């Protein structure tokens, strides 16, 4: 079975699907499935645009709304995760996953599905340590804080995924697992992205939560995006016992969707020829959701997941074969995900712009049906209850400080987004108007040209075993400070200015008068700007 994988789509669905059609015409390559690793931008209307944490000048409608309205239909089944440039209000309607348009499926905050016997998992958002232990409390209309925290990974999603025991074929994350750069062509990566050097050498670039999942799940393939650069790696995992068979993960980070960029990858994977062509629930994942339902939290309070420390009566929420069997019986062994997409918001009409429409908190019927079927907590319903209760006590209104009418994400905020992630460099801000292209950091080509049909097998030539010293826990990243990393971000930025002599673009200062920080327009160099840049995300 052929699977296409895309990096940051940024709403350019027409371009993405046109490229797939081009591959078919020129190379007779027709993928059965398309995976997208975040920044999908499922924007339905102007209200959704206001819920994207990007500067106003980057808020473009793009083409998703045509698929949402039914004007167009995705020519191939598309499964995606969320990133940090999303219509968060739309994706929040589907915390357990669901259809955002016919034939386009969102995996939710975290999720696992099956297609033709292939087991596909993913986690949405990016890692930020200051929000990692919180519950999912955000809801639209967002303020300057929650428009960003809404897409930050939470420990409960990582905890759920770590309960899985059965093998995962493909896993997706938006940000890179921390340490993964040690298993590919690091020299070439640093040659092209020299401002990564200190973080790579300190082993602080990327997500410790994703690294923790990589060590636990050991999927056959792991795909990421976020940093707008293509990079391949091959990691051979250590075995826990002599009886355990060696496992290895092929990692690939994809570039973003732009003309003349290698933003698509085609892989051939084994599948079950007897399986149907429908997207299916994963029985073990459903059982895990049921087992962990009592852990749902919709408050801003920080809390830890159960662990074997003597403080929790139960810490193992992995499920038994009997629990999985019960899920199968509940579904009469029919795991097909229902095609129950419904419109929950007005669709953009180019002839009737609605620039001042306000985003609202919506309970999606798909989520209601899913929770009722499996006895799960509807997170949005719980959030709405908490919101109503807080409003009755006169508390909620004080917390909500909505964005101005422009919905600007550029204005300084008292909320420090902590770009260093407390010992994990994981930028929110990625420049969307890249200047020029960078050299491919893998040895394969995915340029859909007559001369370069996609090839994945050549990307991985260096097999390395992950040493214990590289083991990363997301909780380990919580207690260290970020002062030196923030300082190094400033120094690296100044150094890049000298090395590249590129035009600079000034941005606004913060409330302390620090207006001298500048953004380097060259692709990705803005991602390590200091505190002022944090506030633009």
From TrEMBL:
Residues 235-380 form the Lariat debranching enzyme C-terminal domain. Residues 430-441 have a biased composition (Acidic residues). Residues 387-460, 472-537 are annotated as: Disordered. GO terms for biological process: mRNA splicing, via spliceosome. One of its GO terms (cellular component) is nucleus. It is found in: Nucleus. The keyword Mitochondrion does not apply. Keywords: Hydrolase, Iron, Manganese, Metal-binding, mRNA processing, Nucleus, Zinc. Its main location: nucleus. The keyword Membrane does not apply. Belongs to the lariat debranching enzyme family. This is DBR1 enzyme. It comes from Heliornis fulica (sungrebe). The gene is Dbr1.
